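Schema walk-through. Below, the input block comes first and the output block second. Nothing else is stored per chain. Lengths vary across the set, and this one has 102 residues.
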Amino acid sequence: MTDTATQSPTPSARGPDPAYTRRFSHLPYFGSRIEVYRGQARYTKGFLTRDDLMKSKKGRVVSRRAHQRARAARPLGQYLDFIEGHKGQFTLMHRGMIPSPK
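--- output ---
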């Protein structure tokens, strides 16, 4: 048999993880997306953490979920695919020329 007095307590019995407490003890709880991304706040108002955010191609801080949904929707990509199938149907125009009705 082992003596229970000599065993170390479980992590939950000791309280919160000290590394986590040290890291976030000085930070404000809520902040903007850029503040959370830079590590100056814990959460956004929508409870997004640093892991939920990313930089877009334009350099803006955006939600990873919203970024992936927008990529899946691809409205510009669908438009470009539509244009690709209609290439070569434009006429050369010059001043005074009236386009003929089709």
